[in-house]
UniProtKB/TrEMBL annotation:
Residues 32-168 form the Aminoglycoside phosphotransferase domain. Pfam families: APH. It comes from Symbiodinium microadriaticum (Dinoflagellate). This is Aminoglycoside phosphotransferase domain-containing protein.
Length: 258
């Protein structure tokens, strides 16, 4: 009896992976950046694509996953089951997630999302278009979470972030939407932290234990920094206070982003 055989078909793409500096430069240039225009087009095309049936089935299996997406919910539950305590993450975390999701506002329809939009998963082709690669973590979710993973992962500045979001939306970014996006960005940092935590606990990823710990620590640092940064136009207000001020300042019951 012969062993089974797995075959892969690989298409050659004439281009190069983007770097974080490419994305910083595109954000600084703004609407005139060809890279930014191509990236926005690629992301809009992705989010307008039909969700594969197997991913729809996955979403039904995990249930309502909110802004954090299916992976954050799964990885958080796994860390809780394992009694994770190396980083001070778990105490009060579900309340914080609920608060961040309240700031982010109502969910729009789930779309086909990549959920791993790191710079090296964006390939700039010779014709100037951008190809997305590595769909291992793709799932139905909120498009702004995809953008938050990208902005957070590349540590975009506020202005670079505005350029990205405005290019994607095809219009000037409203202050209220940027305020809400900041909450989604904190969730994105939390999501990446728990990817590292899961790799650290399971020891089943391609990373070594030391690499998994380093990845979790790096993103925990981003999470802590983003969480402590002013979430709105108020300065030095704790997140719960920012939520109350948001409700008094015109952000109550906002519409979905899309």
């Amino acid at each position: 009896m012969q062993a089974g055989r797995i075959s892969f078909q690989v298409d050659f793409v004439d281009g190069r992976a983007l770097t974080e500096e490419d994305l910083h430069e595109a954000g600084r240039i703004g609407p005139e950046s060809k890279v930014l225009v191509a990236l926005a087009k690629a992301l809009r095309t992705l989010h307008a694509s039909p969700v594969p049936p197997e991913l729809e089935a996955f979403l039904k299996e995990v249930g309502d996953v909110g802004w954090g997406g299916p992976h954050l919910a799964k990885w958080l539950s796994y860390a809780e089951e394992k009694g994770y305590n190396r980083l001070p993450l778990l105490p009060g975390l579900r309340d914080l997630i609920a608060e961040l999701e309240a700031i982010a506002g109502p969910l729009g329809p789930n779309t086909f999302c990549h959920f791993d939009l790191l710079a090296d998963n964006l390939v700039l082709k010779k014709d100037g278009s951008i190809l997305l690669v590595d769909f291992e973590y793709s799932a139905p979710g909120q498009p702004f979470m995809d953008l938050a993973v990208l902005a957070m992962g590349c540590s975009l500045t506020a202005e670079e972030e505005r350029s990205l979001l405005s290019a994607y939306l095809g219009k000037e970014l409203a202050e209220s939407d940027h305020y809400r996006f900041k909450a989604v960005r904190v969730l994105a940092a939390l999501r990446e932290t728990f990817w590292g935590v899961t790799a650290e606990l399971s020891q089943s990823s391609a990373l070594t234990a030391e690499e998994a710990i380093a990845y979790a620590d790096m993103n925990f640092g981003k999470f802590t920094s983003l969480r402590e940064a002013p979430t709105s136009r108020t300065s030095g207000v704790p997140l719960s206070g920012a939520t109350l001020l948001a409700r008094k300042g015109g952000f109550e019951v906002p519409s979905a982003f899309f």
